[in-house]
Amino acid sequence: MTGAADVPGELCAVVLAAGEGTRLRPLTERLPKALCPVGNVPLLDRALTRLGGLGLAGPARVAVNACYLGEQVVAHVGDRAHLSVEPGDPLGTAGGVANLRDWIDGRPVLVGNADAYLADPAAPPGPDVAALLDGWDGHTVRLLGQPAADPAAPGTFSGHYFTGFSLLPWRLVRDLPAVFSNLVRALWRPAEAAGDLEVVPYAGTFYDTGTPADYLAANLHAAAGGAIVDPSATVTGRCVESVVGAGARVNGDVWRTVVWPGATVREGERLRDAIRAGDGCTVPAAAHG
C-alpha cells in the first residue's frame, strides 16, 4: 500500500474543528463538537490518532482549525498540531482550509472532519483513510465514501455518501478563497464535473455525530454492546450499554445512555437513549440500529 512518503510532495493533514454543532445543542453550548467524547475519547483525539497511524503528527504535518469555543480547542490540542484560530464566525470547510494556505505551502492535504466517527476492525489507520493514499496520482480529488441505497440521492458522489475524509491536491487548494465556503461547492462538485473526483469505498461503520441520535449511536458502537465506565466514575445504579465519563456519578439507572465527564444521574432517575451533561442537562436521542 502506498504510504505518506510515496505521495507527491510531503503530505500534510488538516482536521476541521471550528464548527458550532448547532444540532447538538444544548450539549455544544458548553463544549465544542470536536471535543464531545465518544467512548470517553474526544472526537478530535480520535481523528488525531487516526492520522498518527499514517505517520502524520506534530505541528509541521497536522493542523487543526478552531473558532466556536476555540479557546477550548486550542488548550486541548496544545503543541500536538499547528493551530489556526478563525476570527469571528467559522469560515466553513473550504474557507478553513484556505485560511491555512501558507501553512500547507504546496503540499497535498488530507482533510478530515473532527466530528466523523469511523470504526474499522483493523487498528487505525486501517484500510479506510490509508486507502485514500493508495495509488493516488496527486492530481484528482479523493473522497472516502459509503454506497448509498439510492445512488442518485442528493448529496451523493458517484453513488456514495461522504464519510469524513478527503484528499486534495495543492493545485486546487492554492486557489481557494479564505472566505466562508464549503468544500462541496467550492471544490468537490467542480472536480466531479471535470472528471477529477474519485470515491474510495469505506466498508466500516461511520457516523457524523452531528445529531443526538448519531452521537449516541457512535457511543453505543464504541461500547460494543457493553458499558464503558471511566475508572474515576462512581456507579451505584444500573448501567447497561452505556458510556460513563471521568468523575461522573451514576446513582440512578442508565440504559443506552452517555453520561459526560463530571455529570450526575441522581438516585431514582432512569435514563434511556439519552445524553446527560452536568447536573441535569438531558438530551434525548433515539439511537439508530
Structure description:
By secondary structure, this protein is an alpha/beta fold. It folds into two domains: 4-207, Alpha-Beta Complex (Spore Coat Polysaccharide Biosynthesis Protein SpsA, Chain A); 225-284. 21% of the residues lie in helices and 28% in strands. The protein has eight helices and 20 strands. It has helices at 43-52, 70-77, 92-98, 101-104, 126-129, 170-173, 183-193, 212-223, and strands at residues 12-16, 37-38, 41-42, 62-66, 82-85, 109-113, 117-119, 141-147, 160-168, 197-201, 205-207, 228-229, 234-235, 239-240, 243-244, 249-250, 253-259, 264-265, 270-277, 281-284. It has a seven-stranded mixed sheet with strand order 5-4-1-6-9-8-10, with helices on both faces. Residues 1-9 have low confidence and may be disordered.
Q: List the total number of helices.
A: 8
Distance between the termini: 33 Å
Number of domains: 2
- Residue share in helices? 10-25%
The rough form would be described as globular
The arrangement of helices and strands along the chain is EEEHEHEHHEEHEEHHEEHEEEEEEEEE
Mean pLDDT: 91
What's the name of the CATH homologous superfamily of the largest domain? Answer: Spore Coat Polysaccharide Biosynthesis Protein SpsA, Chain A
**CATH architecture level-2 label of the largest domain:** Alpha-Beta Complex
Strand fraction equals 25-35%
Structural class: alpha/beta
Largest sheet: 7 strands, mixed
Low-confidence stretches: 1-9
CA radius of gyration: 19 Å
What's the CATH first level of the largest domain?
Alpha Beta
As for the CATH topology of the largest domain, it is: Spore Coat Polysaccharide Biosynthesis Protein SpsA, Chain A
By DSSP, the count of extended strands is 20
- How would you write the strand order of the largest sheet? 5-4-1-6-9-8-10
